Amino acid sequence: MSNREKLFKLIIILIGTFFAIICVSPIFILLNSSFKGLKEIYINILSLPEHLSFKNYIEAFDKLDFMTSFTNSILITVASTSLIVLFSSMAAWVLVRYKTKKKYLSFYGVCFCPIYSISMCHAPFSGFNESIKSNEPIWYSHYVYWLWM
Fold this sequence. Notes:
- The protein has helices spanning 3-34, 38-43, 55-63, 66-97, 103-122, 128-132, 138-148.
- The chain contains seven helices and no strands.
- 77% of the residues lie in helices and 0% in strands.
């Protein structure tokens, strides 16, 4: 391997490491803060906890009815994933078998649809209309909200 290839490989590794740290650091901060008290978090959020405290987890289980929420999340995840796999495999079969000019248009439409629909589903629940004190039609606020995302 030449020096240029080694340098290129090193640069790729450094860039990958940088992005890995950026992706993992919020998870580290979340887990680290979950074992701290509120005062410790305010003093230094990045420091390790002085003593491990499971008080936050116990409080979350007691006050938030965590098991019911967890069960609901599992049920919704399993049902939606099953339906997505079923309908996606049927759509893929049709896209592969039939040779039409509209095939690519429908493929890109299906690829774009989740991006657009997710942002539209979140707009009514975000309080966006109330926050801007708008009397505009609801589709307008959805469109603006989608642009801001």
